[in-house]
Amino acid sequence: MHTNAKLIQSFYTAFQNMDADGMKNCYHPDVFFSDPAFPELKGEQVGAMWSMLIENLKKSKGEWRLEFNQIQADDTKGSAHWEAHYTLSSTGNQVHNIIEAQFVFRDGKIVKHVDSFNFYRWARMGFGFKGVLFGWAPFFKKKVQTTVKLLLIKYMDRISRERLAKN
């Protein structure tokens, strides 16, 4: 197995185990991440997003399961298929998200990670009737993106304050 395929495997194994630090260790400091809910995150934002999501998963009383396969990688790029089963914290609804991931590597780390999934399918599961009615609409997707970006900013601010309080 190629070293970068092992890196992808390590990333998703850490995710399965809800180990945000393990996931962050797979990323290059200059990492770029994007998916339909969290478009265009950079650097520390990426690790903070995974930490925030894992913190929410740990608080959730719902199911958490992640499966991954079809890992492919060479010296510069890679891909994987993964599926997440979880409870969306904001609604309490069960989600089964099916994701295709694309990676670019630099210096033995992931420097670019782009996840693709059907936003409308995800919105229908996550938001129920509201997702069925509006999940296809650009304004709904933009509202979700704005909401989660604000949650990420608040999370990062809280973590910074907690670090300062410890010192």
Description:
The mean pLDDT is 95. This protein has a domain at 3-118: Nuclear Transport Factor 2, Chain: A (Roll). The protein starts with a helix and ends with a helix. By secondary structure, it is of the alpha+beta class. The chain has a six-stranded mixed beta sheet with strand order 2-1-6-5-4-3. Helix content is 47%, strand content 31%.
Continuous helix count: 6
What's the arrangement of strands in the largest beta sheet?
2-1-6-5-4-3
Range of strand content: 25-35%
- The CATH architecture of the domain at 3-118 can be named as Roll
- Give the structural class: alpha+beta
- Give the overall silhouette: globular
Helical fraction: 40-55%
Write down the Rg.
Answer: 16 Å
Overall pLDDT confidence: 95
Element pattern in H and E: HHEEHEEEEHHH
The count of strands amounts to 6
CATH T-level topology of the domain at 3-118 = Nuclear Transport Factor 2, Chain: A
Which runs of at least 5 residues are low in confidence (pLDDT < 50)? Answer: none
Oligomer designation:
single chain
Major sheet size, sense and barrel closure: 6 strands, mixed
